[in-house]
Amino acid sequence: MKVTIALIAVGGVLFGCGTALLLSRPLTRILLGAVLLGNGANLLVLATAGRAGKPPLLYPGTDPKDVADPLPQAMALTAIVITLALTAFLLAMAYRGWQLSGDDDVQDDVEDIRIALRAEHEGTRAELRAVLRADRVRQARAEETEDLDDEVWDHVLGADR
Amino acid sequence: MLGLIAGHFVLAACAGVFTRWWGRRAFLVLALAPAATAVWAALEWNAVAGGRVREQTWRWAPALDLEIALRLDALSLLLTVLAGGVGALVLIYCAGYFRDDEPGLGGFAGTLTAFAGAMLGLVLADDLMLLYVFWELTTVLSFLLIGHSAGRKANRRSALQALIVTTAGGLAMLVGLLLLGHAAGTDRLSVLVAHPPPAGPAVRTGIVLVLAGALSKSAIWPFSLWLPGAMAAPTPVSAYLHAAAMVKAGVYLVARLAPAFAAVAPFKALTVGLGIATMLLGGWRSLREYDLKRILAYGTVSQLGFLTALVGTGTRDAALAGITLLLAHALFKAALFLVVGAVDQAAGTRDIRRLSGQARALPLLCAFATLAAASMTGLPPFLTFAAKEAAFAALAPLPLTLVVAGSALTVAYTLRFWWGAFGPGERAAEAVRPGGSGPQAPGAAAAAAADGAAPPTGRPAAKNEFARVGGWEKTAPVGALALAGLVLGPYVGRLEPLLARYAGTVQEGTEAPYHLALWHGWSTPLALSIAAWAAGAALFAASTPLIRLARKTALPTAEAAFARTVRGTEWFALQLTGTVQRGSLAVYLTTALLVFTGAESYALAHDTPWHTPGGTPRLADDAAQAAVALAVMAAALLCVTARLRMKAVVLAGTTGYGTGVLFVLQGAPDLALTQFTVETASIVVFVLVLRRLPSRFPRTAPRRRRVNYAVGAAAGALVAVLTYLTAAARQAADARDALVEATEHDGVKNVVATILVDLRAWDTMGESAVLAVAAVGVTSLLFLRRRAGALPRAGDGDEPGTVWRAGPREAAGPESLAPERTWLAAGGTLAEERRSVVFEVLARLTFHPILVLSLYLLFCAENLPGGGFTAGLVAGLALVVRYLAGGRYELAAAAPLDAGFLLGAGMVVSVGTGLGGLLFGGAVLDAGTYHTHLPVFGKIHLASPVLFDFGVYLLVLGVVLDVLRGLGAKIDQQIEREQGRTGPEGGEAA
């Protein structure tokens, strides 16, 4: 099939710009990225229909051979309306984010950061736990001997190491 | 058979209620299920021994060829008797063992009964998948039973350990069963065994995997670590699951497969080699334990090794010995476990260094325990003696030597057990003697902890005031099991027909088959038995130095290795997650896109699908298209770099309108119309929100920006190239002609609208629902608490009455700039400085024409560009105009409807049309038309797609209204509240 470069080029550029916007932090930009990406995708779908044609309206005198392929059009139509719903929803989210935090940036996931930090400090954790366990053992031993004066002597002589 | 299995589960489901009604006595009712099983099996005994096989099949999903197939043959019958009989006795014992106020008693009782059912299903299953299901069911139920007192860490650890080990084995077994089943072309166990597939790599792999499951279930080395840990379970559970029933499942599977696969290479090596190794290791290990239950646990491990070795040998006589011993072992080991439970409850400890005088305290139990212990050592005239004689007669010299050594160990630990439980307790003195050779720690728990093992030693002796001896419920089952082992010895000949029925399938046509009997004359096996008793007694006599030796030579246990493995897995998972999952959406997206583009580019470079049958592409269809395309590209690129929010939005809108123009040029007026209306609505919505957000985007780090641009460029280029290649490679004609023909056939003219409401009406309906959900999402994000009802109108309650003030009221100046006449319903509510006569007049003049236009677009959609979506958006734009011209009271006046009502009505209409199609046309969304003649209008033609489209129209209108209410009116209110100028002075304007 003969392809129209112009449509594909526009679609590609819109797609690329949309992607670049999607990768940034402010939710508004992400949303604009989604809008551009949606337009680009619709154009690309339409581009697969081939050559421009007459509108697919079957009035007398219209030769069905001249009509543009209606299938991609029907595919793209609902996508356009969904884009509007997406826009409204993401904007509401951006607004809510602004209400809560003062900007509409997408924040890093706190739980993920915690996991990463835990992975980094795993060694320290083991050390601390060992220290705590030693502490507990010492306490248990002190309780077992039930030496009430022990604590007093600790002040005089210093505690066991 | 199916009924019996189901009966168990039904009773298990009722267990909670029963325990609430009758307390611990509920166990007696629950025991009915396994008791019925045992009775049924006993009634079948002679028939099955005579060679009859009972089968039952229930095809529950014939279309998928799935069925529940059960089969009762000699081997199944023996295990059914065991599972049912021991199960019933253990449940009776439970009635004496537990207290009425035991926490979680109902759940425990139910789980134990369900386990009995699962065990029954396991031994009766003839279908490979069914076998696996019951197998894993026993694993899970065992996990729940071990973790009965989940409050203690040791219990949780043991339960998890058992679960991990046996489930890992079970999964391996699943793969093995599938391999074997595939190789044999059947999923029936009986067929698989009767017609085994020829040995090949797949079959050998399958055997190894199935054995991994079987051996892990039966706690054979190197999987034996979980069984001693499982002693954390209440003693009845140990008696049933970990001595009589569940651990026998592995032996059962080995015995089941032995007739078919004993001759195939790794089968015998694995079962006999590992079995005998386990027998020796387990026996040796049990010599250095002090906890009665752990002595028995290692003894069980040892005996399971023996059993596996016997049934895996693959000769008739060894198989006969194996299943005889299997029966005998279940009887004496369950009895001994139950005795331990009673002793533990009576004395408050299971540590043999602290027990003394139990023979006097529990004389009857002591007698039964003596019987069971004698049976364990294999003394005549017990059943075990007959089994062991058979085993010694059946084995080859090398395994025989090792097995005799293992039997000596068995004798030693049995003596140790009996002496520890009921002896005078001399060891207690030795253990606590300061400076002695025994362990230093004074308490039993501490001793076990020093051993590095789980301390399941029960209550310390200090709490002895809670000790209970228990009634007949505890003694009777022990007696029944112990006496059965004694009585069956002399009558072993009566058992032989059934046992030999199975053994005969292992090896056919044996000359001079071995017969079970207590007395075979003065023979080698008898001599070996005597040697084993003597050696065992000697070992016991020398036990003090031996224990010391055993403790010194103790290798790092499998438990420690297991714990390290688990810890290592967790560490690795943590490090991997911590490295890979950094929490930034942008990073994730970049990664995903880079992988996508990289992989696709590699595929493109590798496969070079560059040939284009369509010939050279054309640059553009016409000059206008090229010009618009260039403009859209420029706007898109500028949009990416724009730092002002509003500028970016306007540029994005420009690309949207440009896209619409391209649609027009391409010959897609429907798309263009929708695109224009959507773009307009979007820009309005953007502006409504952007008035609250900062005017500039925050600065992005240059490096990050460059990465974003690069990834975006790569993704865009790749998608463009892919689209080009797919479109250019296309050779088939498009679907246009068929669609055009279908539309002409319907007598309408707009092909796209026909597709939407007819051919892909399902999609349209689903997408309308998406729209509704999005609208609900918007409102719930903004109206945090309540969204019901229409918007407040001017003059309602404490509404301020004036909206959109530019500044403080005084700033407006003394002379009012406002027009004197209002053109809109609520025009007076707008702050004076915001009013514009031109806009008001225009809004007034255009509102109704736009609404009429929207209806026109809706109803002419069959023949002209338009349709529900477009029409709904156009009507929504009319509301937008009213809102922009007159504020939120104006919106309320223009649309006194609840947006939620519109959404719901729209959904009801379109879904209702769809269902109507089902009702009248036979399929959901089936289109129908109705022709009639009205006096004034003339010929009328009503089509159900139009009604469907009307639903979409209402819904889209509701969405726009909802968005306006949320992002417009609600934000207005919030702004006013923040400015703190909601006061009574607003009321005058109303």
Number of strands of chain A: 0
Taken together, the total number of domains of chain A comes to: 2
The portion of residues assigned to helices of chain B is 55-70%
Query: What count of helical segments of chain B does DSSP give?
Result: 38
Helices and strands of chain B: which structural class? mainly alpha
In a few lines, what is going on in this structure?
The complex is a heterodimer of chains A (161) and B (990). With 161 residues, chain A is mainly α.
Question: Topology of this protein?
Answer:
The complex is a heterodimer of chains A (161) and B (990).
Chain A lengths: L4 H18 L4 H21 L22 H32 L8 H11 L1 H24 L4 H8 L4
Chain B lengths: L1 H21 L3 H5 L1 H18 L4 E8 L4 E7 L1 H24 L7 H20 L3 H19 L6 H32 L4 H6 L6 H17 L8 H4 L5 H10 L1 H16 L3 H22 L5 H22 L2 H32 L10 H4 L1 H15 L5 H12 L2 H26 L3 H7 L11 H7 L21 H16 L4 H15 L17 H18 L1 H10 L5 H23 L4 H23 L15 H19 L3 H22 L2 H22 L11 H28 L6 H11 L4 H9 L1 H22 L54 H23 L8 H27 L4 H22 L8 E6 L3 E6 H36 L11
Antiparallel strand pairs in B: 1-2, 3-4
Helix pairs in contact in B: 1-3, 1-5, 3-4, 3-23, 4-5, 4-11, 4-15, 4-22, 5-6, 6-7, 7-9, 9-12, 9-13, 11-15, 12-14, 13-14, 13-19, 14-15, 14-19, 15-17, 15-18, 15-22, 15-23, 17-19, 17-22, 18-24, 19-24, 27-31, 28-29, 29-30, 30-36, 30-38, 33-34, 34-37, 34-38, 35-36, 36-38, 37-38
Question: Can you characterise this structure?
Answer:
- The complex is a heterodimer of chains A (161) and B (990).
- Chain A is built from 6 helices and no strands.
- Chain A is an all-alpha fold and 161 residues long.
- Chain A starts with a helix and ends with a helix.
- In chain A, helix 1 (5-22) packs antiparallel against helix 2 (27-47) and helix 2 (27-47) runs antiparallel to helix 3 (70-101).
- Chain A has 2 domains: 5-107, Helix Hairpins (Orthogonal Bundle); 111-157, no CATH class.
- In chain B, 69% of the residues lie in helices and 3% in strands.
- In chain B, the strands form 2 sheets. Chain B has a two-stranded antiparallel ribbon. In chain B, strands 3-4 form a two-stranded antiparallel ribbon.
- In chain B, a hairpin with a 3-residue loop joins strand 3 (929-934) and strand 4 (938-943).
- Mean pLDDT of chain B is 82; it is low at 427-467, 809-814 and 982-990.
- At the A-B interface, helix 1, helix 2, helix 3 and helix 4 of A face helix 26, helix 27, helix 28, helix 29 and helix 30 of B.
- Chain B: Its main location: membrane.
- Chain B: GO terms for molecular function: antiporter activity.
